[in-house]
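The instructor's notes for this session suggest beginning with a concrete chain rather than abstract definitions. Hand out the sequence below and ask the class to guess, before any prediction is shown, which regions might be ordered.
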Amino acid sequence: MPKLEKEKHEAFCQTYVISRNATKSAQAAGYSENSAYNQGYMLLKRPEIKDRIAELEGEVTTDVDVIAELEKQYEQAKINNNGQTALKALELLARARGNKSSEDEPTDIAGLEENIKHSMQTIGKQKMYALFMETFPEDFEEEEDEEFEEFEEIVAQVMEEDKEILEQLDD
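After discussion, reveal the predicted structure:
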């Protein structure tokens, strides 16, 4: 597969293969810091992006056993009482082994809300409604159709706004 036509998409793939972080890869590709999370998420869903990443991962070869080298660095840093180096080696080991870095997780309300919105969109409004009923049964004991319609309208409005934002960002 040749390079992707859109330079941002190719840059995203190149960076993602190394960092395994969609948000940072989107930023490195030129997307704004505000839209990088969404762009990274959406790009990873695209088949051509997935294919290009798989191809690039197949091209990366080395004679060095990275994990063994990082383990040696960690042990050496521990022996020499170098805490900073030991911590960095552990962080790199976790990434190399595929463990998710805590840096990838949002720590503020806005970031958490973004994650929730993405999850809600993935799940769908019917299932979300069922989950709300299951989670807060006391609020749905005397359910009325008006309440459900109002909820549906709010969810539809939020999803439409998110769709418009993503379309603008994709252009």
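Then share the key points. Residues 66-104 form one domain. The longest helix spans residues 145-170.
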